[in-house]
Amino acid sequence: MSDTFTIGEAARRTGTTPKTLRHYEGLGLLPPAIRAPNGYRRYRPEDLNRVAFIRRAKALGLTLEEIQELVAVAAGGRCTFTRAELRQVLARKIADCTQRIEALVAFRTTLEAAARQITEPDELPADACCPHCAAFAPSCTCLPVPEPRVLDLALWDKV
Question: Given 27, 45, 77, which residue is the final one in a domain?
Answer without folding.
Answer: 77
